[in-house]
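Anyone up for a design puzzle?
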């Protein structure tokens, strides 16, 4: 700077000058990174106090002591007794396949009920032909195959499940209803007109068939589905010594039970065992995509470029993630440990031997206010004891298309919520679109009187839109909940009332309620999905489970009240 004037040097590009020959040809010597004085590096390490580092050694062996408590009880729902947990049975099967005793036959499709009924008739081979024909006629008359989706409903209409009606007519004289027959046999039903020998033969055949039916179609437990909250509630229990450990799943949406779905009871403490199982294992370094390379001139993988992560001053989580990945990534190790499924495990001791031969005993990370990979305590949410539940899960499952789907949406313009039944299960077992059942509407026509207005009480809504009316949660309470309702629609053949058809809306229950907080503005998509899985013992488990996920936002039904239609135009 001269005479208070700044002088700046401008450059378009700065490049290194590489000598074509000599000691610096093509940067080979620089890339080799030769060390002329190794003692200098040792002096620098001493100067930076690296020789005093507490983490200078790498782990070479680990001694792990564990104890476990076997899971032996399963409790569906919030109340009621628990049942023994069958060893090896997938947890999702117990939760999603359970159902309460129901006098209706909706849980069996018409095709499945007919196959069960035909199997029963096939068990009567020990009876004479004339007696077998008599028993068959009595079973067909007492337990006929009917379409349960429209039986006894005057508002079903001819469009309600035509495929199910046709199947019922085709099978009506061929097989009894297996579900109704199973309940009647459990209540002591038997055909009339049989002598003692034939009656004993019938009872033996009925006992064999009932055993098969209970194993094939019987529910494994009571239903854990909480209808008004659109979620499953259940708990599992484990015994360790004289204490019991209860793991509660207060908000399980269905689809797959993970450890984070559970809360542990407040009375649970850490597991102790005077004779734990101890194993010596070899640790391996934990790696992940984008991890910084340890060697100097090793090219790193560009699949994940952590330095390109953009984070502002308030993005604390991103900043911590990038710092952890770049600075402390190679400080983590993995110890492979095989544990038995169907138990709640706890690590009672963990000792690390490093390259210097030092033995270091480690405890679980975290405290009473903060922790990772721990179950929360039920009611408080505080970290619980360091326990790891390993429950039998439905891994590698096969899922079909949803046989029933209901979209719960809010309609702020009408101050209502709607349960839109997109599909319901047909009597044939397949899904059918409820929009196909919409009858031909008959809107009010303008008045024939010139210049006269026509009053319209309410506009029509789609037939498969079931209204959910807000009602007080309790008498005199400002809080509300939704009650399933019905609407009267004008059609070309008169009036028709909307009616729920699927299992999710439970049309056989007189009053059905849904919690206000469970239907947010984003909506809820509830579905019943057929699932099959092979268990650890090779047995096949198949069920149709309920599950709920986020919806698609608010909906607009177009419902409006107190409308006035314009007068009919007249021509001069």
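Challenge accepted. My sequence:
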């Amino acid at each position: 700077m001269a005479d208070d004037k700044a002088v700046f040097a401008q450059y378009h590009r700065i490049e290194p000058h590489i000598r074509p020959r000599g000691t610096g040809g093509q940067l080979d010597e620089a890339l080799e990174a030769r060390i002329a004085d190794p003692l200098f590096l040792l002096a620098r390490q001493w100067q930076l106090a690296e020789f005093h580092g507490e983490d200078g050694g790498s782990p070479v062996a680990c001694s792990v002591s564990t104890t476990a408590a076997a899971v032996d009880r399963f409790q569906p729902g919030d109340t009621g007794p628990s049942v023994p947990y069958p060893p090896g049975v997938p947890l999702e099967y117990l939760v999603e396949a359970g159902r309460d005793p129901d006098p209706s036959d909706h849980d069996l499709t018409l095709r499945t009920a007919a196959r069960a009924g035909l199997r029963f008739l096939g068990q009567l081979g020990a009876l004479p032909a004339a007696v077998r024909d008599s028993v068959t006629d009595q079973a067909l008359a007492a337990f006929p195959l009917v379409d349960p989706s429209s039986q006894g409903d005057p508002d079903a209409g001819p469009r309600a499940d035509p495929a199910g009606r046709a199947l019922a007519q085709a099978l009506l004289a061929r097989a009894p209803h297996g579900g109704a027959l199973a309940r009647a046999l459990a209540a002591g039903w038997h055909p009339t007109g049989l002598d003692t020998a034939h009656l004993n033969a019938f009872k033996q055949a009925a006992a064999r068939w009932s055993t098969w039916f209970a194993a094939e179609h019987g529910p494994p437990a009571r239903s854990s589905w909480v209808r008004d909250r659109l979620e499953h509630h259940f708990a599992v229990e484990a015994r360790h010594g004289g204490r019991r450990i209860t793991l509660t799943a207060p908000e399980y949406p269905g689809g797959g039970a993970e450890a984070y779905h559970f809360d542990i009871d407040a009375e649970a403490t850490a597991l102790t065992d005077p004779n734990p199982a101890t194993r010596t294992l070899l640790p391996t370094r934990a790696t992940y995509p984008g991890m910084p390379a340890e060697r100097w001139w090793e090219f790193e993988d560009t699949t994940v470029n952590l330095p390109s992560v953009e984070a502002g001053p308030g993005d604390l989580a991103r900043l911590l993630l990038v710092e952890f990945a770049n600075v402390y990534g190679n400080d983590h190790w993995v110890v492979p440990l095989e544990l038995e499924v169907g138990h709640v495990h706890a690590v009672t001791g963990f000792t690390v031997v490093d390259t210097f031969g030092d033995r270091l005993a480690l405890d679980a990370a975290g405290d009473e206010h903060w922790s990772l990979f721990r179950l929360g305590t039920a009611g408080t949410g505080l970290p619980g004891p360091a326990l790891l539940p390993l429950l039998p899960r439905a891994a590698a499952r096969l899922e079909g298309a949803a046989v029933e789907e209901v979209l719960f949406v809010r309609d702020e313009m009408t101050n209502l919520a709607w349960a839109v039944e997109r599909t319901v299960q047909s009597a044939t077992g397949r899904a059918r679109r409820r929009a196909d059942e919409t009858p031909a509407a008959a809107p009010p026509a303008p008045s024939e009187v010139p210049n006269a207005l026509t009053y319209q009480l309410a506009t029509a809504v789609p037939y498969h839109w079931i209204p959910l009316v807000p009602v007080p949660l309790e008498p005199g309470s400002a809080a509300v909940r939704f009650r399933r309702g019905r609407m009267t629609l004008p059609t070309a053949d008169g009036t028709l009332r909307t009616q729920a058809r699927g299992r999710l809306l439970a049309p056989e229950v007189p009053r059905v309620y849904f919690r206000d907080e469970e239907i947010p503005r984003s909506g809820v998509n509830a579905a019943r999905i057929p699932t099959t899985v092979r268990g650890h013992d090779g047995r096949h488990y198949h069920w149709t489970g309920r599950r709920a996920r986020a919806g698609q936002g608010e909906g607009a039904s177009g419902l409006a009240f107190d409308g006035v239609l314009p007068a009919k135009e007249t021509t001069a």
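A detail worth pointing out: Residues 148-152 have pLDDT under 50 and may be disordered.
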